[in-house]
Design goal:
The protein is of the alpha/beta class. The chain has a single domain, classed as Spore Coat Polysaccharide Biosynthesis Protein SpsA, Chain A (Alpha-Beta Complex), CATH 3.90.550. The chain contains five helices and 14 strands. The strands form three sheets. Strands 2-1-3-12-5-13-10 form a seven-stranded mixed sheet, sandwiched between helices. The longest helix is centred in the last third of the chain and has 14 residues.
């Protein structure tokens, strides 16, 4: 693995949206000794399958998996994650939102202790920003808006065939391997998520059932 390289991996299906996300990546501050690689995975069968394809296509030690509708506005983002990874080799993953303890519902946002400061652009003319700052903390699971890693563990494409629970699954896979997951201190949002309201269909519940069968002993 190339310890001087960071790869940004995204499952993409919208050229305009992806181009805007890529523009923000290209404008990040890049340390002199670090190379950056941007990897789109077009037409992925599932989130896990797409991320696994991206993971296997690069020799970068550090990988950042993010949605195509995420704008990374923290200019020194690369420095921030590299500093934390290199300071503590027990940290396997870094996210921007998550929970201390995954509830039995398997929905991290229903946890008693949850953290996150992601700005949401639900409408073009308005960006919603959570008011409270986020402390540096260790968590059990993180949201998939952005996931940074310093070790390679396969995404469970064999288990999850759609677009849900991939983030909670990979969180628990890292914990199974003994790695810590952290959320960095955030006074201001590091990303803008250009999202929209979505209804959960039958595929969501099918993925939840598959997830629970595999990990139920970890969320009791």
């Amino acid at each position: 693995m190339d310890e001087q390289k960071v790869a940004f991996i995204t499952c993409a299906n919208n050229e305009a949206m992806y181009a805007e996300m890529e523009l923000y990546l290209e404008n990040l501050w890049l340390p002199e000794d670090i190379k950056m690689e941007i990897i789109p995975v077009w037409g992925a069968e599932s989130m896990c399958a797409g991320y696994e394809k991206g993971r296997c296509s690069t020799n970068a030690k550090y990988k950042v998996y993010l949605h195509q509708d995420v704008l990374l506005i923290r200019k020194d983002f690369i420095q921030q994650i590299l500093w934390r990874f290199r300071e503590n080799n027990e940290v396997g993953m870094i996210g921007l939102a998550g929970c201390k303890k995954l509830p039995t519902s398997c929905k991290w946002w229903e946890a008693e202790e949850k953290y996150g400061k992601i700005a949401h652009a639900l409408r073009a003319e308005h960006i919603e920003v959570p008011p409270a700052s986020v402390p540096e903390c260790e968590v059990e699971a993180i949201d998939g808006v952005l996931i940074a890693t310093q070790y390679d563990i396969p995404w469970r494409a064999d288990l999850l065939k759609g677009w849900h629970f991939y983030d909670i699954s990979i969180s628990l896979e890292y914990r199974r391997h003994g790695y810590k997951i952290i959320i960095p201190k955030q006074e201001e949002p590091w990303v803008i998520h250009c999202t929209s309201f979505k209804h959960l269909g039958e595929d969501y519940h099918a993925e939840m059932d598959a997830f629970k069968r595999e990990y139920i002993e970890l969320v009791r």
